[in-house]
Amino acid sequence: MTDNDVAAGCRPAVLTLVEYVAGKTVEEVRRELHIDDIVKLSSNENAWGPSPRVLEAIAGMLPRLGTYPERSFHELKEAIADANGVAADTVCVGHGSETIIQLIPQLCVRPGDEVVVADVTFGRYEEASKLMDGRIVRVPLADWRHDLEAMAAAVTGRTRLMWICNPNNPTGTVVPRERAAAFLETIPRHVAVVFDQAYFEFVDDPEYGDGLDFLKAGFDNVIVLRTFSKAYGLAGLRLGYGIAAPPVRRLLDTIKEPFNLNRLSVIAGPAALADQDWMRRCVAETRDGRAFLSRELRDMGLTVVPSQANFVLFDSGRDGDALFERLLRRGVIVRPASGWGLDTWIRVSVGTREQNERFLAALREEIG
């Protein structure tokens, strides 16, 4: 505990939080190791970047940066609604989907309420819920997937919120449609069920359980999260969105910041959605790269979790943090999975063919 009076008097829940550790950036590695030739495969970004239409739209908006964006984000919400086949009054937008992840527990969780989450998944669900004094109920994955039956069995009279990352980060696995439907039938309607689908564009499994289908089918306790950071290549602009039943959406918009997007992200979203050909090409390249990386890693005798996302999780068979550091010194940034309790595992993002081959060559040098 610090001696500062304000910090010493903070809410106890704040002291339980774990600071988010992001993948290292190119700028950090260049500054710390004095390396110029760097491949970043740590943050699940789109190696091909945004559509040229997005860049053109951003350039046209630059002279207007001296004024606030239109507060309702009407055009952006309309574009998102059209792209997803929903009404605009179901759409809320945020500075990345993490903003909405932070808002949902503020809406749902009172001190002592229970929040059900997988034990190996995106860490911000737990931290956002703990901040509201929620009691976290962790359910182990089964075969690297969310164990929906066990999650349903964990529901009690105090449960208010459930998080399902689909595809899951860091495993890349998905929840099948039939299991998800059976799961939702057992969950009380006052319990919010969040399907975080940041990576859903990369899915090619025909059995994938899309949370939006369930919301459209009448499960109005479902909240779906999606993002422009991955398939659309807009990670640097931080633009995400949620789709929820109108009463839930209205409450989320009530508690968010009044201007929680900037003019560049507001104009970039519709431009990205208008260029589906670019997104599809990026997704196709990513799927090919995912298959290539998975095959090559298996050929090296390593265990690989079958992925439906734009990254691959594999067991290096050795200290993952140490391997990460050695790869870093070769100018290759990956993500060690020790933060998820997977001490020998590495998560590598799919890059261009040249980037993927650079990573594999460095890995072979390190592990033989």
Give a written overview of the molecule:
With 368 residues, this protein is an alpha/beta fold. It has 2 domains: 5-49 and 277-367, Alpha-Beta Complex (Aspartate Aminotransferase, domain 1); 52-274, Aspartate Aminotransferase, domain 2. Helices cover 40% and strands 15% of the residues. The protein is built from 14 helices and 13 strands. It has helices at residues 5-8, 26-33, 52-61, 74-84, 97-108, 124-131, 148-153, 177-186, 211-216, 246-255, 263-274, 276-299, 320-329, 353-367, and strands at 39-40, 91-94, 114-118, 135-139, 159-165, 192-196, 222-227, 240-243, 303-304, 311-315, 332-333, 335-336, 345-349. The strands form 3 sheets. It has a 7-stranded mixed sheet, sandwiched between helices. Strands 9-10-13-12 form a 4-stranded antiparallel sheet, with helices on one face. Helix 9 links the parallel strand 6 (192-196) and strand 7 (222-227).
Q: Helix content range of the residues, please?
A: 25-40%
Radius of gyration: 21 Å
Secondary structure tally: strands? 13
By helix and strand content, what is the structural category? alpha/beta
Whole-number mean pLDDT? 95
> What's the structural domain tally?
2
End-to-end distance, in Å?
46 Å
- Classified by CATH, the class of the largest domain is Alpha Beta
CATH architecture of the largest domain: 3-Layer(aba) Sandwich
Unreliable stretches: none
CATH superfamily of the largest domain: Type I PLP-dependent aspartate aminotransferase-like (Major domain)
Task: Give me the CATH fold name of the largest domain.
Answer: Aspartate Aminotransferase, domain 2
Shape: globular
